[in-house]
Specification:
42% of the residues lie in helices and 14% in strands. It is built from nine helices and twelve strands. The protein has a four-stranded parallel β-sheet, with helices on both faces. α1 crosses α3, α3 packs parallel to α4 and α5 packs parallel to α7.
Length: 293
């Protein structure tokens, strides 16, 4: 759950119109204080433990962190009496493993969560719906499929590969790439397109509704690794690492965002190849900066 702040802590980034407030969302009194002071018109609730392997390692921390934080936020909004539009971020992990005849996954696809993170996301999803139905809160829910881009933590698959390539190029790692399951295929969208979708969802989404955010195409992990390796002139050997495999994995998953596209006109604009190039460029700059620090 991170650092505990007994009171909301305010910081101001340089040259920014943002005002940052650091607070533990698992503290209900602190959240009520924060909502009362900020008086928001929109809330995009993204705070969560979002790494599936971590949820297997510590299920309760993931469930407690993800569910409690959102419950406190919804309660704070309800008690404030303000008309605050809230965007609840779910996940395609809620759908679990689809059968071939269930692809692409739609908002009507059955929910079969097969890991603790997915269970926490189903709970967040339906908490948002419950607060809309019970109290009339204008809550909009989205289920984004996989997304990536510059700045993502290296524990996720694309930056995990890109950061290793950058370290190998810089001579900081042996020319060996450690990988997990390469047979899986996922629906990837650039995070910058997803952020644009979040803004459209919170401003134009129908309260109580849920929307998939997806590219509609499945990219194999093997294929994206091959594309990343082709962007480097260094010869790199690939080795399977059993520690990188999940206890439960989904072979293929991809979705359709037709419902959201009909409402807002949103479409992913950044090609996947550009996303991979940008992620690798980011990690080359990160590795270079750390090497000269």
């Amino acid at each position: 759950m991170g650092t505990v702040y007994p009171h909301p802590v305010e910081t101001q980034p340089k040259d920014s119109c943002l005002r940052l407030r650091h607070a533990d969302l698992c503290d209900p009194e602190l959240v009520r204080t924060l909502v009362g002071e900020v008086r928001p018109d929109y809330i995009l609730h993204l705070a969560a433990q979002s790494f599936v392997p971590t949820s297997f390692a510590d299920p309760w921390d993931t469930l407690q962190n993800n569910i409690r934080a959102q419950l406190n936020l919804l309660e704070a909004v309800r008690r404030s009496g303000r008309d605050v539009r809230v965007l609840v971020i779910g996940s395609n992990e809620e759908y679990g493993a689809p059968r071939p005849d269930e692809l692409p996954q739609t908002e009507q696809s059955p929910l079969r969560p097969n890991n603790p993170y997915a269970v926490s996301k189903v709970a967040q999803d339906f908490l948002g719906l419950q607060y809309h139905l019970a109290y009339g809160l204008p809550v909009v829910r989205v289920r984004p499929f996989n997304h990536t881009g510059p700045g993502q933590a290296p524990r996720f698959v694309v930056p995990a590969f890109a950061s290793q390539i950058a370290r190998i190029e810089a001579g900081l790692q042996e020319p060996v790439m450690k990988v997990g399951n390469l047979e899986a295929a996922r629906d990837f969208t650039d995070v910058r397109d997803i952020v644009r979708a979040y803004h459209l969802a919170v401003t134009q989404g129908e309260p109580g509704e849920v929307y998939n955010l997806a590219s509609g195409q499945a990219q194999s992990v093997q294929g994206l690794l091959k594309k990343l390796l082709s962007l480097s002139a260094v010869e790199i050997r690939v080795e399977r690492d059993p520690e990188r495999y999940r206890p439960v994995d989904v072979p293929v998953a991809y979705g359709t965002a037709h419902k959201f596209q009909r409402l807002t006109g949103w479409e992913p604009e950044i090609p996947f190849e550009q996303t991979l190039q940008d992620v690798l460029t980011y990690w080359r700059s990160q590795v270079g900066a750390s090497a000269h620090a």
